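Consider the following assembly input.
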Amino acid sequence: MSDKKPLSDVERIKTESRQLRGTLSDSLVDRLTGAIAADDTQLSKFHGIYQQDDRDLRAERRKQMLEPAFSFMIRARIPGGRMTPDQWLAFDAIGREYANDSVRVTTRQAIQFHGVIKRELKTTMQAINASLLDTLAACGDVNRNVMAPANPALSPVHDAVQAAAKSLSDHLCPRTGAYHEVWLDGEKLDVGGEEVEPIYGKTYLPRKFKTGFVIPPDNDVDVYSQDLGFVAVVEDDQLAGFNVLVGGGMGMSHGEPATYPRLASTIGFCKPNAVNAVAEAVVTTQRDFGDRTNRKHARLKYTIDTHGVDWFRDQVNERLPTPLAPPRDVLFTHTGDRYGWHQSRDGSWNHTFFIENGRIRDTEDRALMTAFRTLAEQGIGEFILTPNQNVILAGLTDAERDAADALIEQYKLGSDSVSALRGASIACVGFPTCGLAMAESERYMPELVTHVDALLAKHGIADVPIVARMTGCPNGCARPYLAEIGLVGKAPGRYNLLLGAAFNGERMNRLYRENIDEAEILATLDALLGDFARERAAAEHFGDFLIRTGVIAYVGASDNFHVAAA
Amino acid sequence: MSTPASKIPPALPLATEQLDALTALGKSMRPEALLWSSGYLAGLAAATGSAVTAPDAPAATQTESDAQLTILYGSQTGNGQRLAEELAVQAAQRSVSARIVNMADYRAQEIKKETAVALIVSTHGEGDPPDDAEALYEYLHSDRAPKLASLNYTVLALGDSSYAQFCQTGIDFDERLAELGASRLHNRVDCDTDYAAAAEAWADATLTAANEHLGASSVRSVPTLHAVQSARYTAEHPLAAEVIVNQKITGRASTKDVRHVEFDLSGSGLEYQPGDALGVVVANPPVLVDEFCDVLSLDRDIDVDGTSLATLLSERFEITVASRAFVERYAELAGSDGLKALLADDAREQLVAYIADRQIIDIVREHPSSPDAARFVECLRPLKPRLYSIASSPLVSEDEVAVTVAAVRYEAFGRPHWGAASTHLADRTDVGDVLSVYVEANPRFRLPEDPAAAVIMIGPGTGVAPFRAFLEHRDATGASGKNWLFFGDRNSREDFLYQLDWARYRKRGLLTNMDVAFSRDQADKVYVQDRLREHAAELFAWLEEGAHIYVCGDASQMAPDVHEALLDVIAAGLGKGRDAAEDYLKTLRRAGRYQRDVY
Ligand code: SRM
Ligand SMILES: Cc1cc2nc3c(=O)[nH]c(=O)nc-3n(C[C@H](O)[C@H](O)[C@H](O)COP(=O)(O)OP(=O)(O)OC[C@H]3O[C@@H](n4cnc5c(N)ncnc54)[C@H](O)[C@@H]3O)c2cc1C
Ligand SMILES: Cc1cc2nc3c(=O)[nH]c(=O)nc-3n(C[C@H](O)[C@H](O)[C@H](O)COP(=O)(O)O)c2cc1C
Ligand code: SF4
């Protein structure tokens, strides 16, 4: 451990925060600014709130001698992405009343609101709370929204796994009363009064922490990208237990080789009833050994690489009544969603809707937000947000399915017209709200996909699904390093092009071209897709093809991501 | 500031031969020349470091007993003062024994002793007396006012006939003095903004009458030097200054267009102080000029004694602000009975409302005529420069001066309307353009002399402009006094004028307190006066510690509302009634601790 180095400043803020209270309440009533105090911007994250500003207006407002156009992004915590129709209606209303007339489905099955202004923040938080969902620990140095397989039709153990995810989410939720105190006018903690965070302790974790459950062969949650992954092992339709994966993560920084995306390592197997204990053991190990001096080296993946996987397994086992068993074999086939209607074994129907980059809003050509509101107003079934930023309406009877079909028809919600590429693609938020964006993402990806679709059509492979993912910076919010075509923003209009990841999320891609613009992106892809079309083996995926043909050098799963392509 | 009459030194600070020389010189000069040289001398005095505490009325001291003409003036923006000084000069030339006194420095009770008074007073706010005239005005209108049977007087009322209460203060003085038994030397003259000729005639009549009344006096009377601005640039002789910044400072979604405009002063020697206003010479909107030519079916190139109509309408005459004067003249020209009806005495109210809602073009459209160009132009008043509170401190930006301009644009009678000056600056002025400017000194809006004194600044909208200058100045001079700023506007995100400056000053501790009221941020409208009431206790504490209050901005709504709020705050603080509060505030005003610059 690196005790010598000074703690990162966020550690000070957490320590002084009286369990995440800080001066948030004062910040909210300061009329002289649309922002909150600097330290509070760190604490608000634990409450699910990020201070942002409209980056399209930054330069202009500086000239106008006005502060940046501050607003807040609020992220709800929605384990496994489950929402009732009523909750959907509540969120729809909040999105229109307090946010920028939209709701945003995230890559972790949650919903984000953008553009909430400070003086409406509290009201918005109370509206969210009234819907019986909350935003506590949606962000911050704690366990984030727990992911779980989206589509109920794909597995008999679906409900059991969802239950496990929900239970774990509750188990790892912070206990502080700050959330109620600040947002819900809950009674104040008497000064000097100390609250105990049984699992996290006074200063929580060194960094964000992410957990995901998955049921093979679908890898929709990208389990290898999670700090902590539980891979369901199913034996004759029963949930036998989970393989335990640790140390996955996507984020890195340009030009800092010490930072890198990493696939999670499998360290064993546990019974379903041991999930919470195992998670607690992993979390507390990271709490005690994670690097609190350097935020860029604080994620679990670095803790593990610092001490070694075996050391880590021992640490976890020490904290468990019964140590982990050896992992079972699992097989993944793909990471994407399956659009349209599917029937579960219990006979109920669900429909997966394609939502481009998770953005739900009404536009001239498509009243998407209205469409989902109308669906929700039917009060039928359950809404499930997918890790690919899509939405599933699940649990419908035959009659309800017909009702839904009528609306799908009316609002053109079908995904038949969506190309294979578009359907398998996602992009992060990026500009104008994301403070870290270096290039456009959500606003640009649709256009780029159209261009690439044209190339695919030209080469006669328009129907081959290819996973393409774009992010506006290397933090990896759309898990771009697990995309067959990864585009990572470097500067306005310029991206790193990464190629060769596995279609099923088991292999990361590699940097192929650096800092290139649209023309070069398309020219590069045109050539490679041409080869692919000509030399493709039966049912071969684009990523696998690039490895087989040596365009991308691949030297095993745990190699250094930064070893450049041959 | 001026020197109270009580502080007048017993004797002239001049040797007799100097005085003779000066008087001779004085006689040989035209009034403008005299004024200029008086300014020049004042400048000299200032330059040589000796403060210009020249006597208000040197001659007065010697002739206190003798019958003499007292020139009493109450002036806010200097016009009346200049006219009073010219009158004093002419009196000297015509050997009429006279003294000139600013009403602010006049002991009200003295009026009993006067035999002849020439009273020059302007009207401000909404028909209110200038600050300096207030004490005398109230005294005369109170029941303590003495009988003035032995007083002979005449009034020159300065005003602007675009205001509802044209020359009201002058009228009040005139009528009240008559009520108190005084008799008129000759009749009151009401001046519009083009007052030069009328004022000169009045002055002449006054001196003639005074002469008869007092008899020529042997006593030399020298025009006062006091407070004549040593300004090198005036409305008549402005500085050609280059615009170096013209920046919109309201946000994209704002309902307002407010500009921060900076002029380059380098090398000009133009001097100003925080609290002063910048006069800007402007031209009317070209589209409006065309509209006039259309509506009047006049060719824009018609020659009116040497100048084209278009040029006259764009550069020489007011074609936006309607006024009583215009209605009177145009009613005749257009032979409009409708307008004439409005001019009847019993229609005063209607006329006021009519003028308030309209620009000249609206009146002409409603009462069309196809007059001769020259005759139409005669209906108009000369285009006068517009004043803008200076928003910068010379200590911070030596070679620049900044103003804050709200563009006046609105729809009425189904057509777009424009303000002449504000849109000239906002729409028709680019960086690099050169405009004529001058400083309109405002000695009645000054930071406390004591740097340790606390300052309370109330300036919603563009009213905040001078307070940016105040704070820059206090920052630069390291003044230790506390500063409290009240600002308000419509929307905090779009209309928070100079937000980054305030944030910086707040961080640095210069801005001790700042409170804001944004009327459209929430359902119920909130204004600065509400914030004043919210902080009543602390505000009163500041006042008790000797804080100075400054109010700048809208005269019609804000200033009265803020005044009311201050009365509430003080009444609460005193635990007494409204009368006590009014006295308290009055004392503050007299002490120069409650200063207003409202428009
Ligand atoms: C909304 C979302 C992207 C989306 O298009 O859906 C998102 C958006 C943001 N992420 Fe993320 N991240 C989102 C999933 C991810 C993922 C994917 C995942 O978790 O499966 C990753 C990669 C996995 C990982 O954590 O390594 C991810 C890695 C990051 C990082 C890099 C973390 C690291 O340790 O390397 C940052 C920056 C940081 O934390 O310093 C970040 C920071 C951010 C912030 C909050 C920017 C900031 O810190 O100011 C972005 C807000 C943008 C905006 O305006 O909304 N986000 N972020 C996803 C919300 C998920 C959720 O509901 O919780
Ligand atoms: C001492 C002093 C300081 C000042 N400081 C500032 C300052 O710092 N910033 C600033 O912006 N101004 C300031 N002003 C006001 C400024 O001088 C001008 O009066 C203002 O800019 C309007 O002038 P204008 O030529 O644009 O409009 P004008 O050509 O004078 O036309 C205005 C005409 O439009 C009418 N009008 C305006 N708005 C409406 C409406 N909404 N509905 C109907 N009729 C309307 C008016 O009645 C008037 O007839 C100050 C004034 C004074 C006396
Ligand atoms: C803010 C402001 C308000 C005014 N209000 C009135 C008014 O109500 N009635 C009027 O006749 N003139 C009004 N005027 C016009 C002045 O009386 C006129 O400009 C006069 O020449 C000023 O003389 P002074 O410089 O001696 O004060 C106002 C002028 C200003 C700047
Ligand atoms: S990847 Fe970067 S740009 Fe995109 S949302 Fe995440 S932090 Fe913002």
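Residues B 277, 320-321, 359, 386-389, 404-406, 408, 410, 412, 419-422, 462, 465, 597, 599 surround flavin-adenine dinucleotide (ligand 2) (CB under 6 Å). Ask yourself how this observation constrains the way the partners meet.
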